[in-house]
Amino acid sequence: MxxxxxxIFFATITEINQKLVKKEFSAVELAKAFCxxxxxxGPRYNALALSLRKVAMSDAKEVDGDxxxxxxxxxxxxxxxxxxxxxxxxxxxxxxxxxxYEGQVFKETATVLKNIQKRGGLLTGKLAMVELAGGPSYRxxxxxxxxxxxxxWDTTRWSGGSSSGSGIAVAAGLVTYALGSETSGSILTPSAxxxxxxxxxxxxxxxxxxxxxxxxxxxKIGPLCRSAEDCGLVLEAISGADDDDPASAHKSFHYxxxxxxxxxxxxxxxxPVDFSEGVDPAARADYAKALETIRSLGLxxxxxxxxxxxYGAIIGTIISAEGSSIFEPLIKSSGVDQLADQRQIAGxxxxxxxxAKDYLKAMRIRSLIQEEFRNVFSKVDVLIAPxxxxxxxxxxxxxxxxxxxxxxxTTPGLTALIPAGNLxxxxxxxxxxxxxxxxxxxxxxxxxxxxxxxxxxxxKAFQDRTDWHKRRPPxxxx
Amino acid sequence: xxxxxxRELAAVVSTxxxxxxxxxxxxxxxxxxxxxxxxxxxxxxxxxxxxxQLDKFPLPMSVEPATTFKA
Lengths: 478, 71
Hints:
The complex is a heterodimer.
Chain A: H1 13-21, H2 27-41, E1 48-51, H3 53-68, E2 80-84, H4 111-118, E3 122-127, E4 150-151, E5 154-158, H5 164-171, E6 177-182, H6 188-194, E7 197-200, E8 220-225, H7 228-238, E9 267-270, H8 272-278, H9 284-296, E10 300-303, H10 311-326, H11 328-332, H12 342-351, H13 356-379, E11 382-386, H14 417-423, E12 428-436, E13 439-447, H15 452-465
Parallel strand pairs in A: 2-3, 2-6, 9-10, 9-11
Antiparallel strand pairs in A: 1-3, 4-5, 6-8, 7-8, 7-12, 11-13, 12-13
Helix pairs in contact in A: 2-3, 5-6, 7-15, 10-12, 10-13
Chain B: H1 6-15, H2 36-55
């Protein structure tokens, strides 16, 4: 059996699929190589929740048969991928990253996984996550059944979460792409911290059927990949109407960057303070170059302000109220005390005490946020900001304590863009754009609802001119 | 879907100018809760703080929650 060259572990979906179709190697060979790598290296970073080698090898044989008969199913055919362990896969454990659900098994497979399997994708494993996707909040990176996600760039630092295993696995070349989820930051954060490309779709574009719910009105499923183009290919596969998801927008997505508007007709809004005082000083030069790259694409870059709302208080109230309602049986059974993080436990308990008036007020202000963002996007087409303003923290660092001793910037800029964008249901793309003392940093692009093709077109163009997304962490073979 | 007049929105947003999202993280010097009871009290205090921020936010009566019920 020919060995799979190391470069394949860091190749894009299109690159690998083309080689499969040309029969440079078989899907079985590819699946074996990726499964070997995921099983041997994944645990080193606490990235792996469950290997699905048997499933992947069986599906790979089918893919080889299909390719032999020229029954081609598209770019995801034969491509190994991982799924955050909040996505159910029938008859296999789905732990939600949490001790109380360690032995949980569902009869059905999540819609997004079925969609990819129909296209010949090879699910090689379930990936680690922060317990209950972070719940209302958590204090430590160790808030997980599988321990803290260790960053492949520096294992003394956190991978980010809650899609920790997804970020790690893509960065370390253990899967070609992964599915993660975001309620408030859980795709963008590991993408930024691990140096991969992550896409948070518009709320309702991707079915949540079969995914653990943390917050009904905030949860989104999305891809973490090696490139913006790969994110587009995966989004096309996983998006679409689903009557089994009450929040389905009943919209489809087709990845068509060639039909995106001319960049010279697009306006990008940003806050200069984010790139001067806001972001880590060690990354400011890279962020300045990133802005210049954006300008060089022909986009008009203009200053913008975020609408002023108490975003933290609003999203905190909504996640706590909805999350505690969802996990009420766990809380009342005292199973909640088995969770790993004390702040998570306390937050879930406290969330049951939120008066209806507070939740309703938060949801009413949220209507105003949506309206204000409609106004914002009448003036600009895309918002741009650092995905995170500091690099990944040390794994022992309390996440709810400020690490930086930098003075707070004179104006807030777009620092609240993650909660704000999630409250308004907006899509976002995080692109690797540089480093701060050896740790990756990301740039987020946020657009109006269902503008993913625009974000992906800009992302692809950015990545055609830069190579941050091709950088690899120092992974030694097992 | 809710639609608000520009005047309503401007009144609400301008009044909220002082209510910017607070930093999520506490200062590094703030001590961590010492036990589960203190942890619960801290979480309850955070939720009360959130509620306090929301209570200061003026809302026209016409604003409905961002949810849609379909019969």
